[in-house]
Amino acid sequence: MYPFRTKLPSAKLLQQLTPPGWHHKSPAQLRQLADAVGRVRIAVIHGTGDDMIDVHHGRLLAKHLEPAVVEIIEGMGHAPIMDRVPWLHGWLEDRIAVVEKLEPVT
Prior knowledge:
This protein is mainly alpha-helical. The chain has one domain (about 25-100). The chain has helices at about 10-20, 25-35, 55-65, 80-85, 85-100, and strands spanning about 45, 70-75. It comes from Colletotrichum graminicola (strain M1.001 / M2 / FGSC 10212) (Maize anthracnose fungus).
């Protein structure tokens, strides 16, 4: 039925799919956002095993934002908080340490 694999019940699947369909930023808007907050504060993480949003979209987002960090994780699904808990905790600690040293955005 769906062009991807999922273990979510239909209602939960719909809840997950609705926001990405409504949110749209042009490449120019993404660059403006990145300029406003600073690219060093931005990270894009996407798993190649994401059944909800294809990794192509993560790569496209990274292309337009040009963030400081891009992580394309082989085999990781849609929810790193569930798929890669220890990795995500370490990654967040590292990113927070970097961002805490930055000047506040005004």
